[in-house]
Amino acid sequence: MTMISTTLASRLSAKTNVRRYTSQPRAPRLWLQRLFWRSELKTLDLAQMRDCGLDPMAVAREAAKPFWRD
User: Fold this and answer.
1) Which domain does 56 fall in, by range?
2) Which of 3, 60, 62, 64 has the largest CB neighbor count within 10 A?
3) What pLDDT shows up at residue 19?
4) Residue 9 placed within a domain
5) Confidence grade of residue 26 (pLDDT, cut at 50, 70, 90)
6) 51-53-54 Cα angle (round to 5)
7) How far apart are CA 25 and CA 19, in angstroms?
8) Is residue 14 domain-resident?
């Protein structure tokens, strides 16, 4: 879970508006990863978020996104 939290923290802190077009075979794999990451975010409690240095509001926004949105 530490690696996932670290990856999510870096993704949440990145402020890029660049749309990346993925090739067709990569999209389902990316979607599954996002689905997993966002479901993991939903399981974090406030103490765990603080421990990872994550903003609870940013976590809630990210967890609420559908898997196909970047």
Assistant:
1) 24-70
2) 62
3) 57
4) no
5) confident
6) 110
7) 17
8) no
* Measured distance CA(41)–CA(56) in Å, rounded: 10
pLDDT tens digits, 34-55: 999 999 999 999 999 999 999 9
Q: How many folded domains does the chain comprise? A: 1
Q: Which helix (H) or strand (E) holds 17?
A: none
The answer to whether 27 touches 66, Cβ cutoff 8 Å, is no
CA gap 61, 64 in Å, rounded: 5
Going from the C-alpha of 7 to that of each of 24, 26, 50, 68, the distances in angstroms are 23, 19, 15, 18
Q: Retrieve residue 49's tokens.
A: 């978020």
**Residue showing tokens 């879970």:** 1
Is there a domain that residue 5 lies in?
no
